[in-house]
Structures are given as structure tokens and as C-alpha cells.
Design a protein that fits this description.
By secondary structure, the chain is an alpha+beta fold. Helix content is about 45%, strand content about 20%.
Length: about 725
């Protein structure tokens, strides 16, 4: 008799789970118990008060979780959960009209829908939904006809016709795992099962609760649960629009507040399941009656008795053969589970296990037959109490899970993730489940923790090094600024003297010496050479003076010590002033014309006029150096956005290669040599200083050019709106 409950359990798990019709027992409403009190923070309460109405929508035909009856009213276990939680939170639910599932997903993407009461979680859906914790979970199984060929798992579905709803999460999993099947599209789980029952499909994949409900409700007696899947349990969640994560935290608190009585009553309304398997006492009574009647009838006719007896024997053999096939199939399925599979009675005695149970623990079948649940945790009182509490949860709520270290025969402690469900069979209560070895998972967690700690140490060390390096750079920058200021000052004093004496000497030589030697040709030539040398001294001294000034300007700007005397500035006037400063240089190139054009609506800017004029002088000098003839054009006008002033200095000179258009703003970088001499002219700092000045005022500067096509330098400054109008 000990094996009778085991047979009943296996049949209940894998063969003919038959739920009572919804409402077949006591019509338990979802509010027979008082709604739970939910501990909310002040912020969460304020959020609920700001969002008192939730627009909800869900699957059209997903009984018993969410569906619409003949009147168009939404029904289902998920809605009962949501109504109970809404009552405890003071929310009003606004049921949106029925719509196809893809349209429902699209509406919550567009945020014209706030919440879906029941939905499976997937990576793709997480891109536009926020999920609560799972509040319903049932095994995912394969449904086939009773006369179909053997199906032992997902791999046996390859090449078969499988009924699935488009966009269903199971279809995504099949594609991910390369299970190549011929999809038969259907509109609902009911249509999927009917397609299998009518032969339009070979199989369907559904969670056990929905399949059992539909098989019983619609009398699909030729269907059976063919095999479990490797996808574990089908978890259902509340799903909220992505911009309302606060609501998910509130819903999770409400779910945590539900007691086992709430769960039992909400599920009991829809899943009051009974199981019929194998030979029941009624079958035995019928069998005895059938046997006894022929015995009584033998007194009337021996021939009739013999015929009935042969029929009964044949029937019994068929039943025994069927039971044997199902027993072989069940054992094969259980032994294929890649982990511990167990069945304990209400006294916590192990009454059924799979072959992997023996392999992983090291105990023989005879030893396992005498095992008590607490034997696995002998010597660990804390773990025993933890497991005892988990068992109480399973018996109270129907489902539970826990992590625990099981002691194997050789004394090792192996960590497992254990999950179990309660079973009520023929008046006896059991709990069954599986255990997955998580040793590698624990090792990876430990390795990740060590890697995290090591990374944090490295980051801290690198941060310290960077902080020290930054401090040294700041010190070097300060030292550089001091050095430049000191050297510039020390160079300026003797350079001023050199330039002064060169000018005085040149003037005196030209006034006093040249008249004395005008009749002596050799001395005249010699005198001209001396004057040329003095001019070179003046020219190179002036160039060195400009370099020193540019260095000082750049250093003051970069170090933040440059004094700025800002006032409203007319950029066209400053451009004309810069042209006047360079008038002598322009006069040396008569083939080169200079134009300054100002747009009548060009606004003022707030800036230091000396610095702005310095920018114009640098850009005009640069254009002058590389343009022998043609034009240099300065244009000033409002920018395209109307929020700034655009200035462009364009020339018809030799142009700039494309790879140098950004490098020319680097300090000391020079693109080409002067056309008149074979040595580089200028300091290489003018463009760098100009960009620094423009960026100081929140503007930007860039260059556009091609070799031989001239160059165009443009900068934009914010307009000074105070003086407009």
C-alpha cells in the first residue's frame, strides 16, 4: 500500500491533472478576508494620492488568470489579486476595453495604459516595463493527445506542429534554445488546446494551472500532460509602465502583506484541483461487480460467462500494460531531472526520489528509504530551524523555496537551491520539489566579490596616484607661470636696451656717417651693409619682443590672472581699428585689398575691446603673411540662431592643408614658411591666444580651408542683449 500514494503523485504531476471547474466548489469571493494593511512611507502615500486611478488591461483569453466572459467583463485570478491590493491601497481600477495582446503591449509602451495584471517577464519586455515580484508560479508542461507518440521533453518537439500565441514568451524561449518547431498560431490558450485536441497541432506548451483549468472546463478529455519542460515554473507578475517605478515598490509591499489565507482563498476560487489517476476504489468496486455478475450469470449460461471473462481479462491486461508504460515513462522523466527530485510525506519522511538523488548525495536507495528531512542537516540547529520554517510555508501557502547546505554521505556540505510545492492526494498531504546544486554559483559569487574588492583597491590606489600627479602638475604649472613671468621680465629689460641702441645707432649712422662716405664707393657699400644689419637687429628684436608679449598674454589667460575690462563692443569698429594698426604692413602689398563689411543687424558683444582688437590683429596678420595679392575680407553679422555674433576673416592666400586645420591653434605650431624668406615667421602663438580669448567669453573659433583656395577663420561670440532695442 506504500506505493499507492507514489503512483498517485506521479500521475498528478505528469499525466492527468484535472481541476475542478471554476466555481465548482465554494464560491469564495476575493474579499471574504479583510484587505491587508500595507506599511507605506509618506512619499509612497503622496504618490498614490497623486495617481488615484490605474488604467489596466490584459490578455483577452488567458484563463484562469485573465480573460473576458460573454458579457465582455474581465475575470480571473490575477484581477482578484489586483482588486484586493487596490482596495488595501485605496486605488480605483479603470478597466480598458478588450484589445489584442500586441495592441495591449503597444499601449503600455505609449503610456496610455498603466498596468498589466498578469504577464511573464522577459529581457525584451524589461526595455519598456517594470515588473513586480512574482505572485503566481506554476510548472510549464507539454500537452498532447492521449494517442500521440511519446514526448519526453522539448527536444522531442523538433519538427512537430506546436500551437502557440504570437508574441508569447514561450515562443521566444524556443527560438533562443534552437528548438525548431512548426508554429501553429492561435489566439488564446483555449484555442491552443483545442487545436491539439482536434489534430490541427501535435502539442501545446502551457502552464499546468491554465491547462488543467481549460481541459476540465471544455471537456478536452483526449488531452494529457505529456512531459515537463526545462523552463521551470511559469511566473506571473504585475507589469507597470516604465516611468512609474514607484508603483512597483508599493505593489511589492502589498504582495508581502498578503497572508497565506489571502493566497489560499484567491487561488482556491479558481484552482480547487482534484486529481484522478489509475485504479481508484470506485474502479476496484466496479471491477469486482463486473467479475461477480458473470459468476452469478454462470448458473444461467456458461457460454455467456466465458465470453465476459475473456473480455475482462483482456481489459485488465490492457490496463496493466498501460500502467506499466506510464510507470516506465514517469521513472524515465524523473531520472532525467538534472538535480534532486524528492517527495516527502507530512511526517517529513522521504518516500520518493530520483536516481540523481543517489548520485549527488552518495546514499543508496535503501539508505534513502529511511531518511528523515532533518537528517540532511544533522548537527546544524540553525539550518534545521530554517528548513522547518520553509516546510511550514509550503504547507501553509502551497509553495516555497530556500537555499540550504545538504550533508552528503562523505560528510561534505553541498549548497542547493530547493523549491517545493504542497500536494494533497487521497486525504494525505505531501510536498514535492527539486534541488539544484549551486556550488558553482556560490564560487562565482565569491570570485566576483573578490574581484570587486580588488578593483575597489586598485581604483583607490589609482585615484591616489592621480591626485598626487595632479598636485604635481598644478605645482609645475605654477612654476611654469612664475618662470615665464620671470624670464620675460628679465628678457624685456636688455631687449629694450638692444632695440633702443639699435635704433639710435642706425639713426646716428645714417645722419653722420653716410654723408662722409658718399664719395667713397667701397665705404658706401660697407655702410649699407651695417644699416642692413642694424635693421635685422631691429626686426628680430621686434619679433622677440612680440614672442615675449604673446607668452605673457597666453600665460596670464591660462592661469586666470589676465585682467578683463569688459564693456559693450562693436566688432566692426574693432576690425577697422585693427586694419589701421596694420596699415603699414598692408601698404607694402598694394595688390592686396582689405574689406570690412558689417551686417546692419549685427548686435554688440560684452568684452574687453583691447583683447578683441588683439584677436582681429592676430587673424589679419596671419592672413597678410600668406596672401600676396587678392583680398582679405572681414564680415560681421548675427549668427544663424540669432543668439550670437559671427565674425569671419577670409583671405585668398595659399590655403591650409586639411590635416592642419585644428593643429594651427596649438601653441608654437606653424603650417608653412613665409613666401618671402626661407625661415618661419611669426611666433606660433597668435591663433592659440585668439582662441583662448574667444572661449573665455563663451564663444568658439575654427578654420576652413583647402591648399591653394585661401583660408577662412570664423569665431562666434554671445550677443549682448541688454543694449538691444
Amino acid at each position: 500500500m506504500r506505493h499507492v500514494p507514489i503512483c498517485l503523485l506521479l500521475a498528478a504531476l505528469l499525466l492527468t491533472a484535472t481541476p475542478c471547474p471554476a466555481g465548482g466548489g465554494r464560491e469564495a469571493g476575493p474579499y471574504d478576508l479583510a484587505p491587508p494593511a500595507v506599511p507605506l512611507t509618506a512619499e509612497e502615500t503622496a504618490w498614490l494620492q497623486a495617481h488615484p486611478i490605474l488604467r489596466i488591461g490584459g490578455p483577452r483569453a488567458f484563463p484562469p488568470f485573465h480573460f473576458y466572459d460573454e458579457t465582455g467583463s474581465a475575470q480571473g485570478m490575477a484581477l482578484d489579486y489586483l482588486h484586493l491590493i487596490a482596495k488595501s491601497l485605496g486605488l480605483t481600477l479603470q478597466q480598458e476595453p478588450v484589445a489584442p495582446w500586441p495592441e495591449t503591449l503597444e499601449r503600455i509602451k505609449e503610456q496610455s495604459l498603466d498596468l498589466i495584471p498578469c504577464i511573464a517577464r522577459s529581457q525584451e519586455r524589461e526595455s519598456f516595463l517594470v515588473f513586480s515580484k512574482a505572485y503566481l508560479s506554476f510548472p510549464i508542461v507539454i500537452i498532447s493527445r492521449r494517442d500521440a507518440r511519446f514526448i519526453g521533453g522539448l527536444d522531442d518537439l523538433r519538427g512537430m506542429n506546436v500551437a502557440l500565441i504570437p508574441d508569447n514568451i514561450v515562443g521566444t524561449w524556443l527560438k533562443r534554445d534552437n528548438i525548431d518547431v512548426n508554429l501553429v498560431p492561435v489566439g488564446s490558450p483555449q484555442e491552443a488546446l483545442e487545436a491539439v485536441a482536434e489534430g490541427a497541432a501535435d502539442a501545446a506548451i502551457e502552464n499546468l494551472a491554465a491547462a488543467s483549468y481549460l481541459i476540465d472546463k471544455y471537456g478536452l478529455a483526449n488531452l494529457k500532460v505529456a512531459a515537463p519542460t526545462s523552463y521551470g515554473n511559469y511566473d506571473l507578475h504585475f507589469a507597470v509602465r516604465q516611468d512609474w517605478p514607484e508603483l512597483v515598490g508599493i505593489l511589492n509591499k502589498a504582495l508581502d502583506a498578503l497572508t497565506w489565507r489571502h493566497h489560499a482563498q484567491l487561488r482556491g476560487k479558481w484552482l480547487s484541483v482534484r486529481y484522478e489517476h489509475g485504479i481508484t476504489p470506485l474502479d476496484v468496486f466496479t471491477l469486482l461487480l463486473v467479475i461477480c455478475l458473470p459468476v452469478l450469470a454462470v448458473m444461467g449460461t456458461t457460454l455467456w460467462h466465458n465470453r465476459r471473462l475473456r473480455q475482462e481479462v483482456a481489459h485488465r491486461k490492457r490496463m496493466q500494460a498501460q500502467l506499466h508504460r506510464e510507470r516506465v515513462f514517469t521513472n524515465a522523466v524523473l531520472d532525467s531531472v538534472p538535480g534532486l527530485l524528492f517527495l516527502y510525506d507530512d511526517h517529513q519522511r522521504l518516500v520518493r526520489w530520483n536516481r540523481m538523488h543517489e548520485t549527488l548525495t552518495g546514499y543508496t536507495g535503501q539508505e534513502l528509504a529511511s531518511m528523515h528531512l532533518m537528517d540532511w542537516y544533522e548537527g546544524d540547529l540553525a539550518m534545521q530551524e530554517k528548513i522547518a520554517a520553509a516546510v511550514r510555508r509550503v504547507f501553509a501557502q502551497g509553495i516555497g523555496n530556500e537555499e540550504a547546505e545538504i550533508r552528503t554521505k562523505d560528510g561534505r556540505r553541498v549548497p542547493f537551491f530547493l523549491t517545493a510545492v504542497r500536494l494533497d492526494i487521497d486525504g494525505a498531504t505531501y510536498f514535492t520539489g527539486i534541488g539544484i546544486d549551486i556550488t558553482e554559483h556560490r564560487r562565482m559569487e565569491h570570485a566576483l566579490l573578490e574581484a570587486k574588492e580588488d578593483l575597489e583597491l586598485r581604483v583607490a590606489e589609482r585615484t591616489r596616484e592621480l591626485r598626487e600627479a595632479n598636485l604635481k602638475l598644478l605645482q609645475l604649472d605654477e612654476l611654469k607661470s612664475s618662470f615665464i613671468s620671470l624670464v620675460s621680465h628679465e628678457l624685456r629689460t636688455p631687449l629694450t636696451s638692444v632695440l633702443g641702441y639699435a635704433k639710435v645707432t642706425s639713426k646716428a649712422f645714417r645722419k653722420h656717417f653716410k654723408p662722409l662716405v658718399q664719395d667713397d664707393a667701397p665705404l658706401t657699400v660697407r655702410g649699407d651693409q651695417i644699416l642692413d644689419n642694424l635693421q635685422v637687429i631691429e626686426s628680430e628684436g621686434g619679433r622677440l619682443s612680440r614672442l615675449i608679449n604673446d607668452l605673457l598674454d597666453l600665460n596670464r589667460i591660462e592661469s586666470g590672472r589676465q585682467p578683463w575690462h569688459d564693456r559693450p563692443v562693436n566688432l566692426a569698429e574693432e576690425a577697422r581699428a585693427a586694419v589701421r594698426v596694420l596699415q603699414r604692413e598692408f601698404s607694402e602689398k598694394p595688390q592686396l585689398r582689405v574689406e570690412v563689411a558689417m551686417h546692419p543687424e549685427a548686435p554688440l558683444v560684452m568684452a574687453d575691446c583691447d583683447r578683441i582688437r588683439q584677436v582681429f590683429i592676430n587673424l589679419l596678420s596671419n592672413a597678410l603673411k600668406f596672401s600676396a595679392e587678392g583680398f582679405i575680407r572681414v564680415t560681421v553679422g548675427p549668427d544663424a540662431s540669432g543668439q550670437g555674433v559671427t565674425v569671419t576673416v577670409q583671405d585668398s592666400g595659399i590655403g591650409i592643408p586639411g590635416e592642419d586645420l585644428e593643429r594651427i591653434f596649438d601653441r608654437f605650431y606653424q603650417v608653412a614658411k613665409n613666401q618671402d624668406t626661407d625661415k618661419a615667421s611669426g611666433t606660433g602663438l597668435g591663433l592659440a591666444i585668439s582662441r583662448q580669448i574667444v572661449e573665455h567669453y563663451g564663444g568658439r573659433m575654427w578654420a576652413e580651408s583647402s591648399p591653394g583656395q585661401g583660408a577662412s577663420f570664423t569665431f562666434v561670440l554671445p550677443r549682448y542683449a541688454r543694449f538691444e532695442g
